[in-house]
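Note to self: keep these together.
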Amino acid sequence: MAPSSSMQSLEQFVHAVLGFIELGGIVMWPLFICCLWMLWLVSRALFKEQSLEALSGVTTECDWLNQRLRLLALRQAQAQQYGDLQGVRLLAMVAPLLGLLGTVSGMIAMFDAGANYGFHDPAVISAGISMAMVTTQTGLFVGLTGVILAFFWQRKLNRLDTDLFVGGAHA
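Structure:
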């Protein structure tokens, strides 16, 4: 009984997400892709975090070549994280602009419907306004989330840079 209820709740969730995307219009698809891409970049950093910390925690007095190789591996992992961080920053800047594009599209749809059917029917106007507000809200939400994630990610990388500089100076 439990698997069918979880499958049913998953179907309801997917139906709700698709309904929300449909409500916002065509611009919601790029916003949705932007959000998924951002989540993918962040998840790559989270899953590689353990190996990065394992490399940075090595402070044994072993062979100089092994220390250099560990330092090189740490720097390569850090360069990958900086690249992913730049991707999150870019997506965080693009998402509000996509939301603004959706706002303009919604307002154009509203004026087009008003020109065709008249502005006396509130239902005609409200569909365009709804599309405009949903895309604006989604773009701002995705962008704000990305900016906050990038801020904390940058702070963590700055701490690793400091640790690498202090720990790697004698290597």
